[in-house]
Amino acid sequence: MSERTMLAAVVTGFGGPERVELAEVPVPRPEAGQVRIRVAAAGLNPVDAGVRAGMFGGAGQRLGLGWDVAGEIDEIGPGVTGWSRGDRVVGLHYGTVKPLGTHAEYAVLDVGAVAAAPATVDVPAAAALPLAGLTAARAVDQLGLAPGSSVLVTGAAGVVGGLAVQLAARAGLVVTALAGPGDEELVRSLGAAAFVPRGGAPAGPVDGVLDAAVLGGAALAHVRDGGVYVGLIPNHAPAAERGVRVEEQEVAADGELLARLVSLVEAGALTLRVSDVFPLAEAAKAHERLATPGVRGRIILTP
Fold first, then answer.
1. Were 91 and a residue from 39, 102, 114, 195 both cysteine, which residue would form a disulfide, CB within 3.0 to 4.6 Å?
2. β-strand 68-76 against 63-64: which pairing, if any?
3. Taking Cα atoms as reference points, which of 35, 28, 39 lies closest to residue 303?
C-alpha cells in the first residue's frame, strides 16, 4: 500500500515570497498525546515571513510554514481522551524551525494546543484567532495592571494590537490606541478610549505600554516612572529605565487559554478580522500580500 501524501507550503532556501513552494510530502501521523487535523483554514503571520527570510535559522533544511489552524480532527493519537474524529477545532502549531506547519492539507498538534472552534464565526475567522489571540491575551496579563489603569497599545489597528485593545478594555483598563491616521474609527470601535496617530504622543504618561508595533524605546518613553512595558518579540525589548518594569511576551500553545478566547468570540466580546483568503496553491501570492503596507486583518490560506 502506497504512502498517503499531501501538499504543504515550505521553503528550502531563504528570501522573498518567491521562495515559498508547494511540496508533496507524506501525511503526518499523530503520536501519543497528539491529534491530526484536516486543515480547513490557516493564518499567515509575520513570523512566517521571518521564517521564510531566514531570521530564525534552519539553513539547508526544508522548513514548514504556518502556526494557526482551524479544521476538524481526523485521527487521534494514543492516550488522547476527550476528543473525537470530526470535532471542529482551532489550535496553535508552535515553532519556527519545523519540517511542517499548518500551511498544509493536514497538521499534527499536541492535544494541549487545541480548543473547540468557535461556532459563531466562519472558518477563516476562526483561523485568525490562535496566534494573535494568545499573544494579545498573554501580553495583557503580563501588564499586571489594575482596572482603571491607563495603557497605550501601539500598532492598535493590527491583528494582535486590535485584539489587545479589546482584551485590555475588557479587563477594565483605559486604552489609548496608537495607529495610522485613518484608523481612529476602527480602534475606537474595538474599545479604545483615546486615539493617537502614528508619530504622536498620548496626553500624558501612561501606567503601561503594550508595544505591538515594536517601537521599543520610543514607546517606553510614554510610560510613567515605575510603570510597565510589555514587548511582543523576545530579545527586542528596550533597556529598563526610571523604574519601569520591562517584560517580553513569548507566545505558547495553550488550549485552555485558547478555549477562553473562543468563549469570548462566541459571546460577541472579541472581534476577529480577516483581510484576504488565498488558496494554499497561491501561498507565495499570500506572502506578497503580507508584505503590502496597510493590511488590516489576518491573511488566511485554505487548502
1. 114
2. unpaired
3. 39
What are φ and ψ of residue 93, in 5° steps? -100, 90
Q: Give the pLDDT score at 186.
A: 96
Please give the Cα distance from 107 to 109 (Å, whole number).
7
Q: Is 289 helix (H, G, I), strand (E, B) or coil?
A: helix
Residue for cell digits 482551524? 70
Beta bridge mates, 39 = 71
Cell triple for 251:
507566545
3-state secondary structure 99-114: CCCCCECEEEEEHHHE
Reported as a single tens digit per residue, the pLDDT across 279-301 is 999 999 999 999 998 888 999 99
* Residues contacting 157, CB < 8 A, separation 6+: 177, 179, 180, 183, 186, 187, 296
Could you tell me the mean pLDDT of each successive run of 10 residues in the chain, 303 residues long? 87 96 96 98 96 94 97 97 97 96 98 98 98 98 98 97 98 97 96 96 96 96 98 90 95 96 97 97 97 91 96
**Do 1 and 268 meet the contact criterion of CB atoms below 8 Å apart?**
no
Separation between Cα atoms, residue 223 and residue 230, nearest integer Å = 11
Report the pLDDT value the prediction gives residue 220, as an integer from 0 to 100. Answer: 97
Find out whether 233 and 214 touch, Cβ atoms under 8 Å: yes
Length of the chain: 303
Which residue bears the cell 481526523? 74
Residue 216: count of CB within 10 angstroms of its CB: 17
**Are the CB atoms for 227 and 206 separated by under 8 Å?**
yes
Cell 501570492 belongs to residue: 285
Backbone angles phi, psi at 138, to 5 degrees: -65, -35
Locate 9 and state its grid cell.
507550503
**15 SS3 class:** coil
Residue 152, SS3? strand
Share of the chain above pLDDT 70, in %: 99
User: What three-state secondary structure class fits 81?
Assistant: coil
